[in-house]
TrEMBL record:
<feature type="transmembrane region" description="Helical">
    <location>
        <begin position="172"/>
        <end position="201"/>
    </location>
</feature>
<keyword id="KW-0975">Bacterial flagellum</keyword>
<dbReference type="InterPro" id="IPR002010">
    <property type="entry name" value="T3SS_IM_R"/>
</dbReference>
<keyword id="KW-0812">Transmembrane</keyword>
<feature type="transmembrane region" description="Helical">
    <location>
        <begin position="126"/>
        <end position="151"/>
    </location>
</feature>
<dbReference type="GO" id="GO:0005886">
    <property type="term" value="C:plasma membrane"/>
</dbReference>
<feature type="transmembrane region" description="Helical">
    <location>
        <begin position="12"/>
        <end position="32"/>
    </location>
</feature>
<protein>
    <recommendedName>
        <fullName>Flagellar biosynthetic protein FliR</fullName>
    </recommendedName>
</protein>
<keyword id="KW-0966">Cell projection</keyword>
<feature type="transmembrane region" description="Helical">
    <location>
        <begin position="95"/>
        <end position="114"/>
    </location>
</feature>
<feature type="transmembrane region" description="Helical">
    <location>
        <begin position="39"/>
        <end position="60"/>
    </location>
</feature>
<keyword id="KW-0282">Flagellum</keyword>
<feature type="transmembrane region" description="Helical">
    <location>
        <begin position="66"/>
        <end position="88"/>
    </location>
</feature>
<keyword id="KW-1003">Cell membrane</keyword>
<keyword id="KW-0472">Membrane</keyword>
<dbReference type="Pfam" id="PF01311">
    <property type="entry name" value="Bac_export_1"/>
</dbReference>
<dbReference type="InterPro" id="IPR006303">
    <property type="entry name" value="FliR"/>
</dbReference>
Length: 257
């Protein structure tokens, strides 16, 4: 009996309690939190990992379901899961920031479509870079690292003592600044060339005021941007790996210490 006449198998209640942290991480994390991923798949993965957690850690759930302490414990578990997923999701915003900077300079900022990750409209260039970042994330087994951190988090932050301190919450907030820094560095090679092109076009407009800049500047910006992306994308891909490592390292530092 777990309160108010509710009778639940203790093992099932322990599994549901463990799935709160795992499910919260999957909701906030990239790849797992995509709107295209069915909810039943997400719940099934949470349950499968929850079984592994129960086999590796002696998790003791609250004895009563309908109690204030139980609701507080569930909120603490969800906070830890959301923190781990949110850090990774913040890092995945860097390609969108870079695409805004590059697309605005190239003149293709108006080209947008539905992003399969979040179901919202985003720049087409940003979708391309986000897909590449997702593929790199999967290629370096980032999803497995996330699952491993979830399992290890029950040692560092066991249920009942899972509240994250102000220092860790502050670190999460400051990590948001890294997304802007990473987006700027990701767009720097192409953005610098487009800036030089705009300076040249500006000098031409001063030297020949009768020149139609729209017929010259826009095609030139588009051509230079495409060529710069083709040349600089290998280096951008290498920096995307750095972004992934930084995000996984920040999640491990904040949650595991």
């Amino acid at each position: 009996m777990l309160g108010f006449g509710l009778s639940i198998e203790p093992q099932l209640w322990a599994l549901i309690f463990v799935m709160v942290r795992i499910g919260a991480a999957f909701v906030a994390a990239p790849v797992f939190g995509a709107v295209s991923l069915p909810v039943i798949v997400r719940v099934s993965l949470s349950g499968a990992i929850g079984v592994l957690v129960l086999a590796a850690h002696p998790v003791v759930p609250p004895p009563t379901v309908f109690a204030v302490t139980t609701f507080i414990a569930i909120a603490a578990e969800a906070l830890v899961g959301f923190a781990m997923g949110f850090i990774l999701q913040t890092a995945f915003a860097a390609p969108l920031i870079a695409s805004e900077l590059i697309g605005g300079s190239m003149g293709i900022g108006f080209a947008s479509s539905i992003d399969p990750q979040n179901g919202r409209s985003s720049p087409a260039l940003g979708q391309f870079m986000s897909i590449m970042l997702t593929l790199l994330f999967l290629s370096v087994d980032g999803h497995l690292v996330l699952v491993d951190m979830l399992v290890k988090s029950y040692d560092a932050l066991p249920p009942g003592a899972a509240w994250m301190g102000p220092d860790r919450l502050k670190a999460i907030a400051f990590f948001g600044g890294y997304a802007f820094l990473a987006g700027l560095l990701l767009a720097l090679p192409v953005g610098f060339l487009l800036l030089c092109l705009n300076i040249v076009v500006g000098m031409m407009s001063r030297a020949a005021p009768s020149l139609n800049l729209f017929s010259v500047g826009l095609p030139a910006s588009l051509a230079v941007g495409v060529i710069a992306l083709a040349i600089g994308f290998p280096a951008m891909g290498d920096y995307m790996l750095v972004i992934i490592r930084e995000a996984l390292g920040a999640a491990q530092t904040i949650v595991l210490g």
